[in-house]
């Protein structure tokens, strides 16, 4: 498991849920609600039932690969990460 002090996401193989750490709340969604995902350089878009999740940042390739396996348990924005690590600068959660 990643050290949450330095990583913007935690993994747990076969995680049943995905938790998004937002400024004023945490939102937990079941992976069974996943419909589709898109990846562009600095943005990942996930659709989970009635929710649209935008993950904005830099070097998101490692996070994208972990999301493909549905092993990501928690995603959180961080002000600073180690060079080369995925950096989530902002999470946007919208009800569709």
Task: Sum this structure up briefly.
By secondary structure, this protein is mostly beta strands.
Low-confidence stretches: none
**Computed CA radius of gyration, to the nearest angstrom:** 12 Å
**What is the H/E string?**
EEEEEEHEE
- The helix-and-strand class reads mainly beta
What is the end-to-end distance?
32 Å
**Helical percent range?**
under 10%
Dominant shape: globular
Strand count, sense and barrel status of the largest sheet are: 4 strands, mixed
Structure description:
The protein has a four-stranded mixed β-sheet, covered by helices on one side. A four-stranded antiparallel β-sheet has the order 4-5-6-8, with no helix packed on it. The protein is globular and about 35 Å long. It has 96 residues and is mainly beta. It is 8% helix and 49% strand. It contains one helix and eight strands.
Key words describing this protein structure:
4-stranded antiparallel sheet, 96 residues, 49% strand, 4-stranded mixed sheet, 8 strands
Task: List the SSEs and their pairings.
Layout lengths: L8 E3 L5 E5 L4 E5 L3 E7 L2 E6 L2 E8 L2 H8 L3 E4 L11 E9 L1
Parallel strand pairs: 2-7
Antiparallel strand pairs: 1-7, 2-3, 4-5, 5-6, 6-8
């Amino acid at each position: 498991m990643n050290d949450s002090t330095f990583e913007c996401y935690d993994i747990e193989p076969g995680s049943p849920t995905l938790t998004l750490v937002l400024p004023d709340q945490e939102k937990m969604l079941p992976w069974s609600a996943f419909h589709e995902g898109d990846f562009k350089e600095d943005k990942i878009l996930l659709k989970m039932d009635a929710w649209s999740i935008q993950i904005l940042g830099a070097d998101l390739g490692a996070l994208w690969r972990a999301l493909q396996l549905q092993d990501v348990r928690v995603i959180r924005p961080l002000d600073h990460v180690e060079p080369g690590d995925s950096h989530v600068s902002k999470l946007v959660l919208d009800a569709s």
